[in-house]
Structure formats: structure tokens, C-alpha cells
Specification:
Length: 290
Amino acid sequence: MTRRILCTILSIGMMSLPLLANNDDYVRYINQYKDIAIEQMRKYHIPASITLAQALLESGAGKSELARKSNNHFGIKCHSWNGKRTYHDDDEADECFRVYKNVRDSYEDHSIFLATGSRYAFLFKFAQTDYKNWARGLKRAGYATSPTYADKLIEIIERYALHRFDRPQGNKSRYLGPHEPYLANDLVYIIARQGDTMQSIADEFGISKRKLICYNDLYKGYVPVKGDIIYLARKHRKAQKPHKQHTVGDGESMYMISQKYGVRLKRLYKMNDATPDTYAPMVGDVIRLR
């Protein structure tokens, strides 16, 4: 199936994270804990994007020793804490950190910590969707000592489109919940569901419909089909290692292969010395991906 390419050059993409690799651990963590973050937002009016970004950063996507052994996903120390404690080197040697029975308790305590702390009170004047001022405000209030703390939170939120969790969800009886993010070729994508439109997906992720269509080599007026891969950033010029080539399976098109590996359709044709008008893949053909 050949689809007309809407555009060939678009310079704006997801921001790069030199210190925070875009990886499956981050995506798995978001899928696992997004509902708790949204639940906390509804109770305490802290943006879910901020909660998730802080947890991802502080816990290393749940991989840190403090997260694994103590269920502490936010690096909260023992100040005014009467519960179980553990000790780790942080800004100083052998500092005291809180220990929780489960991860949900860690999220709840983080929300209470911010909602009741006088130095964080000004944050609640910001809109629930204003993640940038929340991130900068946390740094200004002294939540973390790193001078780049706010920038890192904002990068995580924008790279993984976490700000979509901050928006009101409308009619709860019909709402299916946010799309789960997946990863291919170092790019975040979602799987289209029944009833999705390019506009509804664009609105959910804060991306213009025009850009979303362009990112996915689609045409104006395209209606997503259940199961479609929809990328949230422009696809790359080649596949990620070790994917050097692909053997065409039954019913596969060049477009389907480009979506599977996150490679721009025009570039995929060029790498294989082909054009949409002169080539249709057949079962067993070997397609270069790099």
C-alpha cells in the first residue's frame, strides 16, 4: 500500500537527552505508574507529568537501590519522619532516607510533602498544565541541589510527552485512558485505537495535526486504523543497530516496514534504490534498513 508523502523535511523533533537515554526502562516505568501519578494529581493538584518526571529522574526509572530496596522513588529524606529509615551517601555521606511499604505510599508521601511544605506553597498558584513553571519552581524552592534539575525534568516531560497526563479527561464514561507509549528506533510511538483520529491523537500529545501527519508519512485526511503505529516525533534516516536489513513477510508494504523500524519512508526507498512508482515489495525480498 503506497501513501503519498506529505512533506520531506521537518527540523523540529523531540528534544535530545544527553544524560537521560531514551530507553525501554523509562517507557515501562511510565506505563506502570502513570495511573498512580494521575490519581495523585486529582487528589493534590500536582501535575502528573511533574510527579512522573521526578520519579523517573530520582529513581532511575525504578532501578536505583533506594527505589528497589526502600520503595523510595523521589529521594525524600528523613526530615520530620517517624517511619522506617535507610542510609545512603548523597550530598553528604550516610544521609537518612525514608523507607516505604510499597511504591504507592512513596507517591502519596511525595504529594503530601509538596502539598504541606510551606516553601512549595507558591507552586500551587501555577496551572496544573504549566509543567515548566512547576519544574523551575521546584528547583527554586530547593527540592534538589543540581543546577540543571528543572531542565532535566522539562526534557523528560517533553521527550516522553508526559504533559498529556495533565489535561482534563472529559467524559469519564467514554474515556479509555491515555495511550501507552512504546519505543522503536529511539522514538516514542503509540498504537492507534478504535475511534482515534489524527486530531484526537495530536490533541492528547500537544502536537499539531499537521506535524503528526508529517512525522508518520501520511496524507491529509488520513483516518487511523486500530493497530496503526503513530510516532510522536519525526522518524530517523536509518534503523537502530543491530537492524541492518528486513526480510519482507506476507502482506508487508514499504510503509509498514518504515513504521516498524522508525525509518522515514522516502529514505527507505532511497536506501533500496527504489521509488513508490517502480517497486512493491514481495515476500522474501531483503530491504536495507541502514
